[in-house]
């Protein structure tokens, strides 16, 4: 049996609340993308038939796209469905590949943590100012920061989990 590679480490099934949370993210994103497709298609058909179209369908689909994207990102990362350029990692010895994996996961965690913190600050400022979004729908502006905050926190959690896995593999290999 070949040794595990850093660029494609064996992934034990994550059970419990975290695995269910990631599955819920994927399911919610899929539902939102599907509903967005139905909404847009219905709007196009109604407009072409000269009937009243769905008011605010463009705005609703924009919000659905934003929420679905930020909710799908952690699920994609969890399932290794993200875009990954690992040419260098594949050519390195396992110890160096694991070190690079750990470094990248730690940097990605830091970026997501900063993004989460900034989204909290933006939401807090918008709430304190009483800022509102005025389009077809009117609602507090801070609501727009919630999907970003949720996605950034979940991505940070996943990158932390990956960094811990890389660290454990590095320790096991004596790296």
TrEMBL record:
<feature type="transmembrane region" description="Helical">
    <location>
        <begin position="21"/>
        <end position="40"/>
    </location>
</feature>
<keyword id="KW-0812">Transmembrane</keyword>
<dbReference type="InterPro" id="IPR007387">
    <property type="entry name" value="TRAP_DctQ"/>
</dbReference>
<feature type="transmembrane region" description="Helical">
    <location>
        <begin position="60"/>
        <end position="78"/>
    </location>
</feature>
<dbReference type="GO" id="GO:0015740">
    <property type="term" value="P:C4-dicarboxylate transport"/>
</dbReference>
<keyword id="KW-0997">Cell inner membrane</keyword>
<dbReference type="Pfam" id="PF04290">
    <property type="entry name" value="DctQ"/>
</dbReference>
<keyword id="KW-0813">Transport</keyword>
<feature type="domain" description="Tripartite ATP-independent periplasmic transporters DctQ component">
    <location>
        <begin position="38"/>
        <end position="168"/>
    </location>
</feature>
<protein>
    <recommendedName>
        <fullName>TRAP transporter small permease protein</fullName>
    </recommendedName>
</protein>
<dbReference type="GO" id="GO:0022857">
    <property type="term" value="F:transmembrane transporter activity"/>
</dbReference>
<comment type="subunit">
    <text>The complex comprises the extracytoplasmic solute receptor protein and the two transmembrane proteins.</text>
</comment>
<comment type="function">
    <text>Part of the tripartite ATP-independent periplasmic (TRAP) transport system.</text>
</comment>
<keyword id="KW-1003">Cell membrane</keyword>
<feature type="transmembrane region" description="Helical">
    <location>
        <begin position="98"/>
        <end position="117"/>
    </location>
</feature>
<keyword id="KW-1133">Transmembrane helix</keyword>
<feature type="transmembrane region" description="Helical">
    <location>
        <begin position="142"/>
        <end position="160"/>
    </location>
</feature>
<dbReference type="GO" id="GO:0005886">
    <property type="term" value="C:plasma membrane"/>
</dbReference>
<dbReference type="InterPro" id="IPR055348">
    <property type="entry name" value="DctQ"/>
</dbReference>
<keyword id="KW-0472">Membrane</keyword>
<comment type="similarity">
    <text>Belongs to the TRAP transporter small permease family.</text>
</comment>
